[in-house]
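Table S2 (continued). Query chain:
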Amino acid sequence: MQNLLDCSLPELEALVVSLGEPKFRAAQLFQWLWQRGAAELSAMTNLSKAFRARLAEAAGIVQPVVAEVRTSSDGTAKFLLSMADGAAVETVLIPEGDHYTQCLSTQAGCPMGCTFCATGGLGFERNLTQSEIAGQVLVTRAWLAEKGDPVALRNIVFMGMGEPLLNTENLYKTLTTMGLDLGLSFATRRLTVSTSGIPGEMIRFGRSGLGLLAVSLHAPTQELREQIMPRAARLLPLAQLIEELKGYPLKPRERLTMEYLLLDGVNDSPALARELVRLLSPLKAKVNLIAYNASEAATYRAPSMERVLAFQKVLRDKNLTATLRKSKGADIRAACGQLAAEGRRQAVTRDR
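Corresponding output:
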């Protein structure tokens, strides 16, 4: 049976017309699904009972199911979600003063295998569909409403499990739905897609105009990037990555965001900070520094704040904008893939 949450607005229009209804019914249906988060057709009271009955024979509504929620002392909330086939996926709500930012997953597992990422150790299972990606927003929005939390969910970052630009068909469909006034109504500037760099796909995404781009860089040299992000570094060597980004379409006041995860004693020295300045000099870019959030099985350590600030100072002294994103949710293992990896380890232990 077709999941209505996997339909674009044009696909819903075709469906309702095929069921003998006028096309405008699709807009009403779309609003119920996304604006109001209806989980049952019976809730859609401005649609006739006869139409709902015909619709129920052709399609249904399947949202992700919350398997576990962990809340941090800093207000971060991490959700482990179960999909219809049992795939485990994570999403995280991060408090940012007067609003929340949500990290969305685009794949179950990830094929990139970055050495610092818990998701990389899970391997790749499959791509997520629109209902499973945007459905993460429906789940957290319902959770906030149930808590009576008045703080708005304002920003979305596709920075959870998976490489978004390896799931472009579902990504673009989801971004379109999320940006529609009839849908989740997120402004383009509030939607950010994070990528480790997929050849040709970054420029394509920029031309789509569906959101902002962030690039997971994490190293200023090809040799070091191969060490910590081996598959990404081989797929798109650093020199080629920078060359592609030179052609990225930016609006007059826009800059590319380069994400740099600081790993103690690995990529956080002042010398490497200077290398980073040189690497990014051809680009209109800013750097988002992130201190590593270590897990129990971590290969790396979190750097001291002294090292983090020293790295940042080098960038700023060279007139490269560098903001420090405070790590949150360490007490609930909020870094990407940690909760799913823990669940898998527990399942293996039980099986044994």
